[in-house]
Amino acid sequence: MRNFLQLKVLPLVISTIIRLIRMTMRIDYLYREHMDKLIEKNKSFIFTFWHNRLVMMVYGYAGDEVYVLVSMHRDGVMTTNTLKYFGIKSIQGSSTRGAVQGLKKLIRITRTGADLGFTPDGPKGPPQKVKPGVIQAARLTGLPVLPVSFGSNRKWIFKSWDRLQLPKFFSRGVFVYGKPIYIERDCSRKDIERYCTKLEKVLNGLSEEADRYFK
């Protein structure tokens, strides 16, 4: 019964709440042309954002098809079932379990023209620290990393490891997009570390801009 509630009922409840929140919100989009230009050129990309900003990200993505890498734990299954209500597909794997298998699946998927979704600090943190998985995925697929963040003027902040944010009903929100980041295929380990640091700074900068937007 507990599994049924967590894996079937809860995803429906969560997706319904997210839809209702979106219906009551006014959302602005800053620098969205970075994503739109890639879509216009039929160029797939890796939609990348911090784990604590993920709740509304289904409304920040404007492509046709995206696969998100999720944890192999029970929470990952619940996330997968929730994303299905928004037409978003998932691949199981993470930085802690099934990382290699998950990356291989993602690489195969990109050959179909689909985009990828990544939370580079997931599934368990440390928060706002980029792990190399997203850089490796970009290196192996040749896809650019498209950083994005989200902020709202009124929100609930949960006491989770990432301080997950959920905008309140009738609040205002904003998506802030960064320039695509391209990764060389033959980059060294030091290069990967450098790209991790760069992406980390960009995502933190976008998040700060999103949080300042309503002040």
The portion of residues forming beta strands comes to: 15-25%
Oligomer: single chain
Q: What is the level-2 CATH architecture name?
A: 3-Layer(aba) Sandwich
Query: Quick one: biggest sheet?
Result: 7 strands, mixed
Averaged pLDDT, please?
91
How many structurally independent domains? 1
3D architecture notes:
With 215 residues, the protein is α/β, with parallel strands linked by helices. It has a single domain, classed as Glycerol-3-phosphate (1)-acyltransferase (3-Layer(aba) Sandwich), CATH 3.40.1130. It has six helices and nine strands. It has helices spanning 2-24, 33-40, 74-84, 99-110, 133-141, 189-212; strands at residues 26-30, 46-48, 66-70, 89-92, 115-118, 145-152, 155-157, 165-167, 172-177.
Briefly, what is this?
This protein is of the alpha/beta class. The chain is built from six helices and nine strands; from the N terminus they run αβαββαβαβαββββα.
Keywords:
single chain; 215 residues; alpha/beta; Glycerol-3-phosphate (1)-acyltransferase; 7-stranded mixed beta sheet; two-stranded antiparallel ribbon; 6 helices; 9 strands
